[in-house]
Amino acid sequence: MFIISDKKILCENIIKFDIIAPDIAKSRAAGQFVLVIPTKESERVPFTIMDADINKGVISIIVQVIGTTTQKLAKLNKNDCIYAVAGPLGKQTEIENYGAAVCIGGGVGTAVMYPIAKELKKIGNKIISIIGSRNADMLILEQEMRDISDEFYITTDDGSKGTKGVVLEPLMNLIKSGKKIDIVFAIGPAIMMMKVSELTKQYNIKTIVSLNSIMIDGTGMCGSCRVLIDGKPKFVCVDGPEFDGHLVDWQNLMIRQTAFKHQEKCSLDKYLETMNLK
Ligand SMILES: Cc1cc2nc3c(=O)[nH]c(=O)nc-3n(C[C@H](O)[C@H](O)[C@H](O)COP(=O)(O)OP(=O)(O)OC[C@H]3O[C@@H](n4cnc5c(N)ncnc54)[C@H](O)[C@@H]3O)c2cc1C
Ligand code: FES
Q: Is 70 helix (H, G, I), strand (E, B) or coil?
């Protein structure tokens, strides 16, 4: 059992949980994730370890509430127990001194981006951050990202904060202005990561993305997280989650992400009915 030591609602449907998990806090690195089973009957779902405090033995995850399992997690409060938390899983980010790194976070992808940008900054990279969301209320980790950035840009779909539009536009402006960019990290919805990768490929800028394929066991055995990288099958849980964005078969990823849409909807409808929320 893993105790929730703190719970913060960051915005509608996005929650930060601090969880007491000393062994995971000690051994985790940027880019890694945990599998969480909120209650005894629920499925297991992956979340990036957004931060950790070794002294307190606490890890933090940021959860967007979208389906049955995240709804169940959202019901838990401070001092409640999570049934299981397994990790750290996945490969750690290759943190090197690249030079100027553009760190792009779209929506809840900013929570996945943050630990990477933080570590890149620690060893002396110049961090140019671009974070985007649907509107100002949905922006997460703005101050945290600002604090570790040398340059910082915000975009919102409706223009309620920063530039109106998507994260691609500031990136395009930076590239066109001739700014030195040594690497791009882009994390968010698959379509956003695909567009960023298509753009950077034209300018031959190395681009790393973090893929959120559907996972079941998280240990390389079930094959549900399979993706095609440079035409070869890879498992996101053990070979990733980060890959070269220029080599990802994006169409294959997006088709596989929707494989269980019907079952997910039925499961959520049933859960909401049981909870009298529908
Ligand atoms: C390595 C990794 C790290 C992630 N980190 C975060 C994070 O930090 N914060 C966050 O909010 N989300 C993160 N996700 C996505 C998160 O795991 C899913 O949103 C969650 O599993 C949805 O579960 P659900 O039952 O609530 O929704 P469901 O009804 O099951 O599904 C809703 C949507 O989520 C996707 N999804 C469903 N199950 C999974 C699964 N097991 N793995 C991945 N996607 C799934 C489906 O494609 C569907 O579109 C991460 C995913 C991966 C693979
Ligand atoms: S989640 Fe089963 S192989 Fe990756």
A: helix
